[in-house]
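Q: Start with the shorter request: fold the first protein.
A: Done. Sequence, then structure:
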Amino acid sequence: MSQVGEAVISADQRVVSVSAEKSVDGLSWGWTLDIVLSGSEPVTSDELGNVLKAARHAGDLDPGHVDVFATDEGGSSFDLTTAADGLGLRYSKVGAGISVPREMLDDTLGTGE
């Protein structure tokens, strides 16, 4: 899972740290990312897209979903829904984060690395 964390940190300059855990949702497994971002500005669609694409393609496994939770360095949660809507993603709201199915990641962000 360190490959996923490293990929996400490299994907966007605002990512300060990330915790990546394998998660299960029904019959699907995927990644749950807890990301700390620098600054207090809202997360942009480009930033969210970079993070999701990096997580989707990192490591040897093929995740069925990616769950993302993001906070600033003070621990305040970011609303990711505006950025996800800007990308045209279909997602589920999960607490302060979002869950995006793999097929939506591929359809919206592409299947290539």
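Q: Next, the second protein, separately.
A: Sequence, then structure:
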Amino acid sequence: MFFKSFTFSMAVALAAMSSAAVAQTYDCTFNDGHRRNVIPSQVVVELAADGQSAQVIDSVSHHHKIAPVAAKFVKNTNKRLRVRWSLKDVISGSGQKATLNFSLTHQKGNGKAFLNMDIPGYGNTESGNGRCALRK
């Protein structure tokens, strides 16, 4: 049930994001590689028609009611898509405020994806493996 409502909510949010033409949408799912379960299970990347910019929403931003964010870095080639984005002022369950920096790499040939999350000031990096697919 969460997956359906999350997917629908993300689709609506991304459709309303901007008037820029969207060239491609990638739906990604990830497994957290660690016991803390902090890696987003879902990420949607809306790549603009120019291939140089993107909007991103993930299950963490959705949970915290954060609007889709502009990617800080986008590199899109025939073989690979790389995207970086940040979520600022995310409040943890213990009340701490943090910035979450994400880096996604998607290998288009085999659909595999890797997601890294860094929280500045906390000294640890979390990662997860998954898959991305181009939305048809």
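Q: Describe the second briefly.
A: Confidence is low (pLDDT under 50) at residues 14-19. The first helix runs from residue 2 to 15.
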